[in-house]
Design goal:
- It contains 7 helices and no strands.
- It has about 140 residues and is mostly helical.
- It has a single domain, classed as Four Helix Bundle (Hemerythrin (Met), subunit A) (Up-down Bundle).
């Protein structure tokens, strides 16, 4: 599955006048951005991404430490959607994720992060960036 499909779902959910739908839009927007970044790092750059909850922080850390200003910014930007997703998931007393404006902001930020990651995976940029991810590569047996 292409995580970008979550953005399509988020864009549909944000228009439903219901708190659960807007919270879901925030969640889907985050998972679109996170999923695209995680797949690019593992599939295009060979980075080890754990299949556990720690993967969220690892994806941000790899982006922030790669030495590419645009990807470092994407790693920084990924923190807010993560926090918004956690609020939407677990802090039911907090109405912020239910706001149409906040849900739209989450979608727009996810789109921005995805654009940056997609640009980094295109040649010849990918070839120039690939050595920067050496420390995060899977260990060969």
């Amino acid at each position: 599955m292409d995580p970008r499909d979550y953005l399509r779902v988020a864009a549909t959910l944000v228009h439903v006048d219901d708190p659960a739908h807007r919270r879901s839009a925030v969640q889907r927007a985050y998972y679109a951005a996170y999923g695209v970044a995680a797949l690019a790092l593992s599939g295009k750059f060979g980075c080890e991404i754990p299949s556990s909850g720690e993967s969220h922080g690892r994806v941000r850390q790899i982006l922030q430490d790669c030495g590419d200003p645009a990807l470092e910014l994407a790693g920084d930007l990924l923190k807010d959607p993560y926090d918004w997703r956690v609020t939407a998931d677990y802090e039911h007393h907090d109405p912020a994720p239910e706001s149409p404006a906040n849900a739209r902001d989450a979608i727009e930020l996810a789109e921005r992060i995805i654009r940056v990651v997609d640009q980094a995976t295109e040649e010849p940029r990918r070839a120039r960036l690939s050595p920067r991810f050496k420390q995060w590569r899977r260990k060969k047996k």
